[in-house]
Amino acid sequence: MPEKATVIIPAAGRGKRMAAEKNKLFLPLGSRTILQHTLNLFLQHPQIDHIFLVVAGNDQEMLTSLLASEEKITVVTGGAERQDSVWNALELIQQSEVMPRWILVHDGARPLCPSIVIERILKQCALSGAAIPVVPLVDTIRKITPQHTKVLNRSQLFATQTPQGFDAQLLIEAYRCCKKERWQTTDDASVVELFGHSVETVDGVVENLKITTPQDLKFAEWLLNQQEHGVTC
Asked: Residue 33 is part of which domain span?
């Protein structure tokens, strides 16, 4: 039987680029909210045993009430930065009666991640202890400085997605060091790499987009409609 994994979903950001009056994860995507879609990705996956949903303090009471019947979800108060929010969840995980073998960290604003990507991450974690999904860049990328501009080698550049997966003890120790050394990072793989552990990559997919702007939401609505009609991208 495959070992189970726990998921941390940071959802405490306000999403300023969405220009919404509330947390963008509460915006509708089809018949559900963005957050509901994201949670269902893992509630329905057979290898996920628990979800730690990290939210802003002013959303915690409402979400705790709404999710009270979901035994697989624990609502956690977020921190000032994303890495603080992840650490808050890791502290609770360390208090669990049974430590998970694997921990995935997934953006709350990626509601359309297919299960195949989750499975690729879990499989690679079992081999190397740390894995992230990536997709190749399709645009020409140009580095611009005050002195000159330069086209970068696109074949060596990839966009990073989530879920990012790690051996549980490795991620906890890496984050403990991150707190002590006050590293500033933008994702969990960077924390693990700064800790000295390599991170392997697996193939991501285009539809696993992060909803950041109103245009992203429109694209996600189109993708969801395609999925509901059995059309693969």
From this structure: 5-226
State pLDDT tens for residues 7-31.
999 998 766 677 667 789 999 999 9
Instruction: State how far the alpha carbon of 164 is from the alpha carbons of 62, 80, 151, 202, in Å.
Output: 28, 21, 29, 10
HSE-up (13 A, CA, CB side) for residue 138: 3
Residue at 216 is within a domain: yes
Residue entry with tokens 């990328």: 141
What's this model's pTM, rounded to 2 decimal places? Answer: 0.93
- Note whether residue 231 is domain-resident: no
Residue 159 pairs with which residues in a beta bridge? 135
Question: Rounded to whole angstroms, how far apart are CA atoms 192 and 205?
Answer: 23
Q: State CA 182 to chain mean position distance.
A: 22
Number of domains in the chain: 1
Tell me the C-alpha distance between 106 and 204, whole Å: 13
Establish if 125 belongs to a structural domain.
yes
Alpha helices (H) in 18-136, listed in sequence order? 34-43, 57-66, 82-94, 115-128
Instruction: Report yes or no on 155 lying in a domain.
Output: yes
Buried b (16+ CB within 10 A) or exposed e, 99-115: ebbbbbbbbbbbbbbee
d(CA 190, CA 209) in angstroms, rounded, equals: 20
